[in-house]
Amino acid sequence: MIALISLIFMIIVLDGVVSAAEAALFTVPPARAKFLSETSHAGKSLLALKESMGGPISVLVALSNLITIAGSVFSGIMAARVFGEEWVGLFAACLTFLIMVFAEIMPKRVGERYAEQVSLMAALPLGFTVKMFTPIIRAVERVTGPITPYKKVSTSEEEISFLAKLGAKEGSIENYEGELIQRIFKLNNINAADMMTPRPLVFFLDGNRTLGESHDLIHQSKYSRIPVYDKKPDRVVGVAHVKDLLAALLQQKSGMLIREFAQPPLVVPEDKLGDELLREFRRTKQSLAVVVDDHGRVVGVVGVEDILGELVGEVLEEKEISPELIKRVSKNEVVAHGETQVSTLNNFFNIDIPDHRTINGYLLKKFGRLPAAKDVAEVGNLKFIVEEVSPSAIERVRVVKGE
């Protein structure tokens, strides 16, 4: 009787250890295993197991089956001697229940709950066992390979984005961190044309003019970098830094040509993807690029800050919005002053609203009244959302372009 109880106990313990190790091995993320490999020898062994899961799983499944089958056979023989053959069926049912609960369900939960600790404890002995049975494992894989080929599991963008949303919802990460992760993936879905400042809104300097002749224009500029052209804007010869121009003016070098201060421009096609453009900025150590179309015509400029705006969003202060300026919030969303010309909006979105008035005048006609904040007007695939109104005019509008 004591021998039978001892055998049952041994079956449950051994099978439980195997079940816990299997669950832990599946639960530990590959990235975490890679981190642990840099801190301990057991971590290195764990990473090796995670990188080739076919061998460890084959060994664990084989051990589990060997323990339960062999244990059941021997314990059944012993039970027949102790209780008689008529009780073997009931004994088998009880043993199955014990194995299922105490050697499968509970150990697997422990393995999942303490995955890191259990997998590190099991990594070295399991790694040794895998090496010992490598010839058998390879023979089995040759037989089963054509039927069930091993495919390395990779994590998709959709999964990472979903995990970011889930993490933010559950509080594992901050909301802004989850949003930032999702925005990063959007960079490979938008291109330079989506982020650029259109050519009609770009401030250029004529490279053939002198500093003295361009003095007023330089001082009026709101930008730190200015594209420089030769004879016409389609022939951009470089980008000049305003600080260099101002320094030269202070040094009484007003006779120098603007083009002498221009650095070779970074020229990119309008379909250049956002993530590729960011890598290009890093490679060239430049922060402004000239965007051209298929015919080599300049269609706008795009800067590092435009990419950062896509990643973190833009903080728009009231004082930043002026009739001469449109602020891009995202690929299809801008904020504009009410006095901004509709033609400027046309250039920005590459659309054609046949109106020569300001956005304020255009929307007053559409609404037929002075709208209130949050009122919405839809024109084609454009949505105009009124954000700020004075007693007599629309001051600030958010414009969203539909896909």
Blueprint (SSEs and pairs):
Elements: H1 2-27, H2 30-37, H3 41-51, H4 54-83, H5 88-113, H6 115-132, H7 134-144, H8 157-170, H9 175-186, H10 192-195, E1 197-198, E2 205-206, H11 215-220, E3 225-230, E4 232-241, H12 242-250, E5 266-269, H13 274-284, E6 288-292, E7 298-303, H14 304-312, E8 326-330, E9 333-337, H15 342-349, H16 359-367, E10 376-379, E11 382-389, E12 394-401
Description:
Residues 1-177 form the CNNM transmembrane domain. InterPro entries: CBS_dom, CBS_dom_sf, CNNM, FAD-bd_PCMH-like_sf, FAD-bd_PCMH_sub2, Ion_transp-like_CBS, Transptr-assoc_dom. Residues 196-255, 257-318 form the CBS domain. Its main location: membrane. It is found in: Membrane. The chain is of the alpha+beta class. The chain has four domains: 2-144, no CATH class; 157-188, no CATH class; 190-312, CBS-domain, CATH 3.10.580.10; 318-401, 2-Layer Sandwich (Uridine Diphospho-n-acetylenolpyruvylglucosamine Reductase, domain 3), CATH 3.30.465.10. The protein is built from 16 helices and twelve strands. The strands form three sheets. It has a five-stranded antiparallel beta sheet. It is elongated. Mean pLDDT is 83; it is low at 315-321.
Provide the spatial order of strands within the biggest beta sheet. 8-9-12-11-10
**Main sheet properties:** 5 strands, antiparallel
Rg measurement, Å: 35 Å
Overall SS class: alpha+beta
Oligomer: single chain
| Count of alpha/pi helices | 16
How much helix is in the residues? Answer: 40-55%
Report, as a whole number of angstroms, the end-to-end distance.
76 Å
Q: What proportion of the residues form beta strands (DSSP E)?
A: 15-25%
